[in-house]
């Protein structure tokens, strides 16, 4: 048995991959190394193949791989300490990262500073959403008016831990198995598709009417409105308008609930502005960030909140937010995150994402003429080919690899979120591979 056969056999028999069966596992591709925007694979046949990563490793490796500046930050921090508990201790990387996140946080137009002035570090995006929901629940308990429910929209995805699962789409989402076990939240209809759908559009008028009516039924029990602004990621890459976000935020504030934005996928420029909140013209009370925060090097997330929220959460009998991950504010992750934020600025992320948007719009356009393609859409550094049938995932992925690209479709979507550093040629390669793979597999 070759070393490759041995590795894949052990993987098949013992390792459980995301959203997969331990009984009938698929065969993954072995990555030997990565650099720039490319992964170096060993295929099950033993062949070595270099492919462009169209996924940014689930949207986080925005600077690509083997990035000298991030490598240097990691090495430098390793020479000091890789980890120290955050309970009772602090360290410079955490302090400086908190300062940077507050400086970058969305703010009202014309304001000198963001109202998001407090930072709670978490060790994954899902945990950051867990913390944000706990903040909302605890704030209302401390105020003497406990509220049990969250208000959100169908089609969302907020993570795989317990509380985030409860605000993920209970019908079309991936957690329907847990119906009856999870807390039951309130789900409004999914807003009409399209970034430019305004308040007078008939579909928006009907959505707003139904959403306001639903909210009114539960208003006294709603602790917070929780949404991914503008773009629902793993729930279907659904793009919707800033006006819908404004409606949802106004409902929360009219009735004393918090506004929570999950910017884990949309933050740090992915949709074209640093935060999707900026395009919506809404500053949330609580905001979660993650994924691109460390450029894909280490797991780290953060929850930002206003001073009012911090006081409300801390003002009860407990006197504290009852949460504390072991790896909270890990120094190594914080140091790399600081270098990643420096690199976003140095590389002019806005221009990078604008180039991605232009290249994706041009390169994916031919897919609209293919059989079984229902929609082609682009928002910032996100390109989507949506089919009218479920994607034959393994076949499309294999066809893309043959064209020099790694892609991981899901549901009815073949999509890409390329690293920001992708060149025009890289983007053209990605688009050609996705269009070609869809034509080959779903063209009949």
UniProtKB/TrEMBL annotation:
Annotated binding of substrate, by residue: 58, 157, 291, 324, 408
Subcellular localization, as worded in the UniProt entry: Cytoplasm
Catalytic activity entry: (8S)-8-amino-7-oxononanoate + S-adenosyl-L-methionine = S-adenosyl-4-methylsulfanyl-2-oxobutanoate + (7R,8S)-7,8-diammoniononanoate
Binding residues for pyridoxal 5'-phosphate: 125-126, 262, 325-326
InterPro entries for this protein: Aminotrans_3, Aminotrans_3_PPA_site, BioA, PyrdxlP-dep_Trfase, PyrdxlP-dep_Trfase_major, PyrdxlP-dep_Trfase_small
The EC number(s) this enzyme carries: 2.6.1.62
Residues recorded as bearing N6-(pyridoxal phosphate)lysine in the entry: 291
One GO MF term: pyridoxal phosphate binding
Keywords attached to this entry: Aminotransferase, Biotin biosynthesis, Cytoplasm, Pyridoxal phosphate, S-adenosyl-L-methionine, Transferase
Organism superkingdom: Bacteria
Chief place where the protein resides: cytoplasm
Swiss-Prot/TrEMBL site (Participates in the substrate recognition with KAPA and in a stacking interaction with the adenine ring of SAM) positions: 19
Classification via Pfam families: Aminotran_3
Catalytic class of the enzyme: transferase
GO BP terms: biotin biosynthetic process
Quaternary structure annotation from Swiss-Prot or TrEMBL: Homodimer.
PANTHER family in the cross-refs: ADENOSYLMETHIONINE-8-AMINO-7-OXONONANOATE AMINOTRANSFERASE
Main function: Catalyzes the transfer of the alpha-amino group from S-adenosyl-L-methionine (SAM) to 7-keto-8-aminopelargonic acid (KAPA) to form 7,8-diaminopelargonic acid (DAPA). It is the only aminotransferase known to utilize SAM as an amino donor.
The protein, known as: Adenosylmethionine-8-amino-7-oxononanoate aminotransferase
UniProt source species: Oryzihumus leptocrescens
């Amino acid at each position: 048995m070759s070393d490759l056969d041995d590795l894949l056999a052990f993987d098949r028999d013992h390792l459980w991959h995301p959203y997969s069966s331990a009984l009938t596992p698929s065969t993954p591709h072995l990555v030997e190394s990565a650099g720039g925007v490319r992964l170096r694979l060993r295929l099950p046949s033993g062949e070595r193949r270099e492919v462009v990563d169209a996924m940014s490793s689930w949207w986080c490796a925005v600077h690509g791989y083997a990035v000298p500046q991030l490598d240097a930050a990691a090495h430098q921090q390793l020479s000091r300490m890789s980890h120290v508990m955050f309970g009772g201790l602090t360290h410079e990387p955490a302090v400086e990262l908190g300062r940077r996140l507050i400086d970058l946080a969305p703010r009202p137009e014309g304001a000198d500073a963001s109202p998001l002035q407090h930072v709670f570090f978490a060790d994954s995006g899902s945990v950051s959403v867990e913390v944000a929901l706990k903040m909302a629940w605890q704030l209302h308990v401390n105020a003497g008016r406990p509220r049990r429910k969250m208000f959100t929209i169908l089609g969302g995805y907020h993570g795989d831990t317990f509380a985030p699962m409860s605000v993920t789409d209970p019908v079309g989402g991936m957690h329907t198995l847990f119906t009856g076990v999870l807390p039951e939240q309130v789900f409004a209809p999914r807003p009409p598709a399209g970034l430019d759908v305004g308040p007078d559009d008939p579909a928006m008028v009907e959505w707003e009417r139904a959403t306001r009516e639903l909210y009114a039924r539960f208003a006294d029990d709603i602790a917070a409105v929780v949404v991914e602004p503008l773009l629902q990621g793993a729930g279907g890459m659904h793009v919707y308008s800033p006006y819908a976000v404004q409606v949802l935020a106004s409902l929360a504030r009219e009735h004393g609930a918090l506004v929570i934005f999950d910017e884990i996928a949309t933050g740090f420029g992915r949709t074209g502005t640093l935060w999707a909140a900026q395009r919506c013209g809404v500053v949330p009370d609580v905001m979660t960030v993650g994924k691109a925060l460390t450029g894909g090097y280490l797991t780290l997330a953060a929850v930002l909140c206003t001073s009012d929220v911090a006081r409300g959460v801390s003002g009860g009998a407990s006197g504290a937010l009852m949460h504390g991950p072991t790896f909270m504010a890990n120094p190594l992750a914080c140091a790399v995150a600081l270098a990643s934020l420096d690199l976003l600025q140095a590389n002019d992320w806005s221009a990078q994402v604008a180039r991605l948007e232009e290249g994706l719009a041009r390169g994916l356009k031919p897919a609209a003429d293919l059989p079984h393609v229902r929609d082609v859409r682009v928002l910032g550094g996100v390109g989507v080919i949506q089919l009218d049938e479920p994607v034959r995932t393994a076949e499309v992925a294999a066809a893309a690899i043959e064209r020099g690209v790694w892609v991981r479709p899901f549901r009815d979507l073949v999509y890409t979120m390329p690293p920001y550093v992708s060149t025009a040629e890289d983007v053209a390669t990605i688009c050609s591979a996705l269009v070609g793979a869809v034509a080959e597999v779903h063209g009949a």
